[in-house]
Specification:
Layout (H helix, E strand, L loop, with lengths): L4 E3 L4 H10 L3 E4 L5 H6 L7 E4 L9 E4 L2 E5 L4 H6 L1 H6 L1 H8 L4 H6 L2 H7 L6 H8 L2 E4 L3 E3 H4 E3 L2 E2 L7 E7 L3 E8 L6 E10 L2 E7 L6 E2 L1 H9 L24 H21 L2
Parallel strand pairs: 1-3, 2-3
Antiparallel strand pairs: 4-5, 5-10, 6-7, 6-10, 8-9, 11-12, 12-13, 13-14
Length: 267
Protein backbone atom coordinates (compact mmCIF):
# COMPACT_ATOMS: atom_id res chain seq x y z
CA UNK A 1 0.00 0.00 0.00
CA UNK A 2 1.37 3.38 -0.99
CA UNK A 3 1.30 6.40 1.31
CA UNK A 4 -1.63 8.81 1.03
CA UNK A 5 -3.22 11.72 2.88
CA UNK A 6 -6.50 11.25 4.72
CA UNK A 7 -9.35 13.76 5.04
CA UNK A 8 -12.71 13.37 6.80
CA UNK A 9 -15.01 16.27 5.82
CA UNK A 10 -18.25 16.89 7.70
CA UNK A 11 -20.24 18.33 4.80
CA UNK A 12 -20.80 17.69 1.13
CA UNK A 13 -19.45 21.14 0.30
CA UNK A 14 -16.18 20.40 2.10
CA UNK A 15 -15.87 16.98 0.46
CA UNK A 16 -16.37 18.38 -3.03
CA UNK A 17 -13.87 21.15 -2.33
CA UNK A 18 -11.23 18.62 -1.25
CA UNK A 19 -11.78 16.44 -4.31
CA UNK A 20 -11.33 19.49 -6.52
CA UNK A 21 -8.27 20.88 -4.75
CA UNK A 22 -6.30 17.69 -4.11
CA UNK A 23 -4.95 16.12 -7.28
CA UNK A 24 -5.64 12.38 -7.60
CA UNK A 25 -7.91 12.25 -4.55
CA UNK A 26 -10.54 9.53 -4.23
CA UNK A 27 -13.75 9.49 -2.19
CA UNK A 28 -14.04 6.72 0.40
CA UNK A 29 -17.40 5.29 1.49
CA UNK A 30 -17.38 1.80 3.04
CA UNK A 31 -14.01 0.93 1.56
CA UNK A 32 -14.84 -2.69 0.77
CA UNK A 33 -13.62 -2.33 -2.80
CA UNK A 34 -11.14 0.52 -2.54
CA UNK A 35 -9.13 -0.71 0.48
CA UNK A 36 -8.33 -4.12 -1.09
CA UNK A 37 -7.29 -2.28 -4.26
CA UNK A 38 -4.95 -0.11 -2.20
CA UNK A 39 -3.45 -3.16 -0.49
CA UNK A 40 -2.76 -4.80 -3.84
CA UNK A 41 -1.43 -1.51 -5.25
CA UNK A 42 -4.04 -1.57 -7.97
CA UNK A 43 -4.97 1.96 -6.90
CA UNK A 44 -2.65 4.69 -5.68
CA UNK A 45 -4.53 7.91 -4.83
CA UNK A 46 -2.66 10.82 -3.32
CA UNK A 47 -5.47 11.29 -0.79
CA UNK A 48 -8.63 9.65 0.49
CA UNK A 49 -11.67 11.80 1.25
CA UNK A 50 -13.70 9.84 3.80
CA UNK A 51 -17.43 10.56 3.35
CA UNK A 52 -18.49 8.74 6.52
CA UNK A 53 -19.22 11.87 8.58
CA UNK A 54 -21.62 13.46 6.06
CA UNK A 55 -25.02 12.85 7.63
CA UNK A 56 -26.99 14.15 4.64
CA UNK A 57 -25.89 11.06 2.72
CA UNK A 58 -27.57 8.69 5.16
CA UNK A 59 -31.14 7.55 5.71
CA UNK A 60 -33.81 5.44 4.00
CA UNK A 61 -37.23 6.85 3.19
CA UNK A 62 -40.37 5.40 1.61
CA UNK A 63 -42.53 8.21 0.24
CA UNK A 64 -45.49 7.44 -2.00
CA UNK A 65 -44.24 5.47 -4.98
CA UNK A 66 -40.53 6.04 -4.39
CA UNK A 67 -37.97 4.44 -2.08
CA UNK A 68 -34.97 6.72 -1.54
CA UNK A 69 -31.80 5.32 -0.01
CA UNK A 70 -28.91 7.50 1.11
CA UNK A 71 -25.60 6.69 -0.54
CA UNK A 72 -23.97 5.83 2.81
CA UNK A 73 -26.62 3.27 3.74
CA UNK A 74 -24.81 -0.01 4.33
CA UNK A 75 -25.95 -3.28 2.82
CA UNK A 76 -26.96 -4.43 6.31
CA UNK A 77 -29.08 -1.30 6.80
CA UNK A 78 -30.83 -1.85 3.49
CA UNK A 79 -31.40 -5.52 4.34
CA UNK A 80 -32.87 -4.65 7.74
CA UNK A 81 -34.91 -1.60 6.77
CA UNK A 82 -38.67 -1.77 7.34
CA UNK A 83 -39.20 0.76 4.54
CA UNK A 84 -37.24 -1.39 2.08
CA UNK A 85 -39.07 -4.54 3.20
CA UNK A 86 -42.39 -2.79 2.68
CA UNK A 87 -41.59 -1.03 -0.59
CA UNK A 88 -39.25 -3.40 -2.46
CA UNK A 89 -38.74 -6.59 -0.42
CA UNK A 90 -36.55 -8.22 -3.05
CA UNK A 91 -34.08 -5.34 -2.66
CA UNK A 92 -33.76 -6.18 1.04
CA UNK A 93 -33.08 -9.82 0.18
CA UNK A 94 -30.54 -8.79 -2.45
CA UNK A 95 -28.67 -6.66 0.10
CA UNK A 96 -28.69 -9.50 2.61
CA UNK A 97 -26.97 -11.75 0.07
CA UNK A 98 -24.01 -9.47 -0.62
CA UNK A 99 -20.62 -10.75 0.54
CA UNK A 100 -20.21 -11.65 4.21
CA UNK A 101 -21.12 -9.89 7.46
CA UNK A 102 -18.13 -7.56 7.39
CA UNK A 103 -18.88 -6.47 3.84
CA UNK A 104 -22.59 -5.99 4.61
CA UNK A 105 -21.88 -3.90 7.69
CA UNK A 106 -19.29 -1.65 6.05
CA UNK A 107 -20.06 -1.61 2.33
CA UNK A 108 -22.47 1.04 1.06
CA UNK A 109 -24.96 1.23 -1.78
CA UNK A 110 -23.38 4.42 -3.11
CA UNK A 111 -19.91 2.94 -3.09
CA UNK A 112 -21.09 -0.23 -4.83
CA UNK A 113 -22.81 1.71 -7.61
CA UNK A 114 -19.87 4.07 -8.09
CA UNK A 115 -17.44 1.13 -8.24
CA UNK A 116 -19.66 -0.72 -10.77
CA UNK A 117 -18.08 -4.13 -10.49
CA UNK A 118 -19.37 -6.14 -13.48
CA UNK A 119 -20.50 -8.93 -11.13
CA UNK A 120 -22.03 -6.78 -8.38
CA UNK A 121 -25.66 -7.03 -7.26
CA UNK A 122 -26.73 -3.40 -6.77
CA UNK A 123 -26.16 -2.38 -10.42
CA UNK A 124 -28.66 -5.08 -11.43
CA UNK A 125 -31.19 -3.70 -8.95
CA UNK A 126 -30.70 -0.10 -10.08
CA UNK A 127 -30.98 -0.97 -13.76
CA UNK A 128 -33.71 -3.56 -13.23
CA UNK A 129 -35.89 -1.11 -11.33
CA UNK A 130 -35.14 1.96 -13.44
CA UNK A 131 -33.61 3.81 -10.50
CA UNK A 132 -32.31 7.37 -10.49
CA UNK A 133 -28.83 7.97 -9.08
CA UNK A 134 -28.69 11.40 -7.45
CA UNK A 135 -25.37 13.20 -7.10
CA UNK A 136 -24.26 16.54 -5.70
CA UNK A 137 -24.70 17.94 -9.23
CA UNK A 138 -27.55 16.12 -10.99
CA UNK A 139 -29.90 13.16 -11.28
CA UNK A 140 -28.75 10.32 -13.57
CA UNK A 141 -31.06 7.62 -14.89
CA UNK A 142 -29.69 4.12 -14.30
CA UNK A 143 -29.92 3.46 -18.05
CA UNK A 144 -27.25 6.14 -18.60
CA UNK A 145 -25.20 5.60 -15.44
CA UNK A 146 -23.36 2.31 -16.07
CA UNK A 147 -20.99 2.86 -18.98
CA UNK A 148 -18.52 -0.05 -18.86
CA UNK A 149 -16.31 -2.25 -16.70
CA UNK A 150 -15.74 -0.35 -13.43
CA UNK A 151 -16.81 2.87 -15.17
CA UNK A 152 -19.85 5.11 -14.77
CA UNK A 153 -21.20 8.46 -15.90
CA UNK A 154 -19.80 10.12 -12.76
CA UNK A 155 -17.49 13.05 -13.47
CA UNK A 156 -14.46 14.11 -11.39
CA UNK A 157 -15.62 15.63 -8.11
CA UNK A 158 -19.13 14.19 -8.51
CA UNK A 159 -20.44 12.22 -5.52
CA UNK A 160 -23.50 9.98 -5.29
CA UNK A 161 -25.80 11.31 -2.56
CA UNK A 162 -28.80 8.98 -2.82
CA UNK A 163 -30.59 6.46 -5.02
CA UNK A 164 -34.31 6.72 -5.80
CA UNK A 165 -36.11 3.50 -6.70
CA UNK A 166 -39.64 3.59 -8.16
CA UNK A 167 -41.80 0.93 -6.54
CA UNK A 168 -42.57 -1.94 -8.92
CA UNK A 169 -45.73 -4.01 -9.07
CA UNK A 170 -43.51 -7.02 -8.44
CA UNK A 171 -39.85 -7.87 -8.74
CA UNK A 172 -37.30 -10.55 -7.98
CA UNK A 173 -33.56 -11.13 -8.14
CA UNK A 174 -31.90 -14.51 -8.61
CA UNK A 175 -28.17 -15.08 -8.79
CA UNK A 176 -25.81 -17.99 -9.27
CA UNK A 177 -23.03 -17.29 -6.79
CA UNK A 178 -19.35 -17.62 -7.41
CA UNK A 179 -18.67 -19.71 -4.26
CA UNK A 180 -15.42 -18.03 -3.22
CA UNK A 181 -16.27 -14.35 -3.70
CA UNK A 182 -20.09 -14.58 -3.44
CA UNK A 183 -20.32 -12.22 -6.37
CA UNK A 184 -22.74 -13.16 -9.11
CA UNK A 185 -21.38 -15.58 -11.68
CA UNK A 186 -24.63 -14.48 -13.27
CA UNK A 187 -27.50 -12.58 -11.65
CA UNK A 188 -30.83 -11.54 -13.14
CA UNK A 189 -33.15 -8.85 -11.76
CA UNK A 190 -36.70 -8.76 -13.15
CA UNK A 191 -39.32 -6.12 -12.37
CA UNK A 192 -42.82 -5.43 -13.63
CA UNK A 193 -44.53 -2.06 -13.40
CA UNK A 194 -47.58 -0.68 -15.18
CA UNK A 195 -47.01 -1.50 -18.85
CA UNK A 196 -43.27 -1.99 -18.36
CA UNK A 197 -40.98 -4.93 -17.69
CA UNK A 198 -37.25 -4.59 -17.07
CA UNK A 199 -34.69 -7.39 -17.03
CA UNK A 200 -31.16 -6.55 -15.87
CA UNK A 201 -28.25 -8.99 -16.04
CA UNK A 202 -25.05 -8.80 -14.00
CA UNK A 203 -21.98 -11.04 -13.94
CA UNK A 204 -22.41 -12.25 -17.50
CA UNK A 205 -20.85 -9.41 -19.46
CA UNK A 206 -18.35 -6.60 -19.07
CA UNK A 207 -21.04 -4.44 -17.45
CA UNK A 208 -24.59 -4.79 -16.20
CA UNK A 209 -27.05 -4.67 -19.10
CA UNK A 210 -30.73 -5.00 -19.98
CA UNK A 211 -32.04 -8.09 -21.81
CA UNK A 212 -34.33 -6.27 -24.24
CA UNK A 213 -35.60 -9.39 -26.06
CA UNK A 214 -36.78 -10.85 -22.77
CA UNK A 215 -38.37 -7.57 -21.75
CA UNK A 216 -40.43 -7.52 -24.94
CA UNK A 217 -41.73 -11.05 -24.44
CA UNK A 218 -42.48 -10.51 -20.75
CA UNK A 219 -44.34 -7.27 -21.46
CA UNK A 220 -46.69 -9.27 -23.67
CA UNK A 221 -47.10 -11.99 -21.03
CA UNK A 222 -45.36 -11.95 -17.66
CA UNK A 223 -44.72 -15.67 -17.27
CA UNK A 224 -41.62 -17.94 -17.31
CA UNK A 225 -42.70 -19.71 -20.49
CA UNK A 226 -42.66 -16.39 -22.35
CA UNK A 227 -38.86 -16.42 -22.44
CA UNK A 228 -38.04 -20.10 -22.77
CA UNK A 229 -37.24 -19.68 -26.46
CA UNK A 230 -35.35 -16.39 -26.22
CA UNK A 231 -31.86 -17.07 -27.51
CA UNK A 232 -29.04 -15.64 -25.40
CA UNK A 233 -25.92 -14.98 -27.44
CA UNK A 234 -22.59 -15.86 -25.81
CA UNK A 235 -20.62 -13.70 -28.23
CA UNK A 236 -19.96 -10.75 -25.90
CA UNK A 237 -20.21 -12.54 -22.55
CA UNK A 238 -17.39 -13.22 -20.08
CA UNK A 239 -15.37 -16.42 -20.21
CA UNK A 240 -12.94 -17.28 -17.41
CA UNK A 241 -11.80 -20.08 -15.10
CA UNK A 242 -15.17 -20.05 -13.35
CA UNK A 243 -17.47 -20.35 -16.37
CA UNK A 244 -17.42 -20.16 -20.14
CA UNK A 245 -19.38 -17.56 -22.07
CA UNK A 246 -21.68 -20.33 -23.29
CA UNK A 247 -22.41 -21.46 -19.75
CA UNK A 248 -23.12 -17.89 -18.68
CA UNK A 249 -25.51 -17.49 -21.61
CA UNK A 250 -27.33 -20.62 -20.45
CA UNK A 251 -27.51 -19.28 -16.90
CA UNK A 252 -29.05 -16.00 -18.04
CA UNK A 253 -32.00 -17.87 -19.52
CA UNK A 254 -32.44 -20.19 -16.55
CA UNK A 255 -32.13 -17.48 -13.90
CA UNK A 256 -34.45 -15.11 -15.77
CA UNK A 257 -37.18 -17.74 -15.73
CA UNK A 258 -36.59 -18.37 -12.04
CA UNK A 259 -36.72 -14.65 -11.31
CA UNK A 260 -40.08 -14.35 -13.08
CA UNK A 261 -41.37 -17.34 -11.09
CA UNK A 262 -40.17 -15.73 -7.85
CA UNK A 263 -41.75 -12.39 -8.75
CA UNK A 264 -45.10 -14.06 -9.48
CA UNK A 265 -44.87 -15.93 -6.18
CA UNK A 266 -43.99 -12.76 -4.28
CA UNK A 267 -40.64 -14.15 -3.16
Amino acid sequence: MRAFDYHRPKSMKEAVSLLRKVENAKPLAGGQSLIPSLKLRLAGPAALVDLGAIEEMRGIKLDGGTLTIGALATHAEVAGSKDVALGIPTLARLADGIGDRQVRNLGTIGGALAHNDPAADYPAAALGLGATINTNKRAIAADKFFTGTFTTALKPGEIITSVAFPLPKRAAYVKFRQPASRFALVGVFVSESVGTVRVAVTGAGSCVYRAKAMEKRLTEKFAPDSITRVKISAEELNSDIHASAEYRAHLVGVLAQRAVEAALAGK
